[in-house]
UniProtKB/TrEMBL annotation:
SMART domains named among the record's database cross-references: AAA
Lineage per the UniProt record: Bacteria, Bacillati, Actinomycetota, Actinomycetes, Micrococcales
Protein's name according to its UniProt entry: ABC transporter ATP-binding protein
Location (main, coarse): membrane
InterPro entries xrefs: AAA+_ATPase, ABC_transporter-like_ATP-bd, ABC_transporter-like_CS, ABC_transporter_ATP-binding, P-loop_NTPase
Amino acid sequence: MTAIRIRNLRKTYGKHVAVGDVDLNVEQGEIFGILGPNGAGKTTTVECLTGMIRPDRGEIRVLGLDPATDLSALRHTVGYQLQSSELPNEMRVGEALQLFAAFYPNPADIDELLEIVGLRAHRKKAFSSLSGGQKQRLSIALALVGNPRIAVLDELTTGLDPQGRRDVWELIENVREKGVTIVLVTHFLDEAEALCDRLAIIDHGHTIAEGTSSELIEASGLPSNERRPSLEDAYLAIIHNNELLRAA
């Protein structure tokens, strides 16, 4: 069943086209990855689907809701983890979750949520004393505190060391097992390949490919003579081919 459907999405800022023509389909219960170079339109796309900004044109449906007209209901359905989530330095982990929980009619149990994200022992820690990985875990918890059916996670593991990234990956798998559909915006191809059921590649504000890792590798047209191409190989080839088409 479709969780998110986007058709012909466009968003401009003056003469700058942030998103030109994006189409996406996200199925309920999957981890869906959005890939693309810096400035491709990934974050603008998810800001439109979460109702943070209004597009110039296009159709968006999130579990049947239109962000333009159903914003209040949408905010109780979708949790959004921003690229950079900063809190007051002295705010404690438990206090932050209680504050955010007060915005929702049916929030998650904070003790259970702290257990899920591995922060129970850090409930009384100030935000400034958290490690980078702990801040990311708190950011995810804040996205989940409203009991959303969909979680949008933007550049989830940027700045984390390899172990921190692996720990967050495990956390995301656990969240999906709770029945939450996840949209993951990432630059990391290994992360996308490890976590995502399906992927979309956005470049210059357009969706240029969508499918499983295997389908994207097949669509790239790369030969498999000596070794099977990786998702990274396919991604680079698809981006390169798109650049050639734009230049033609």
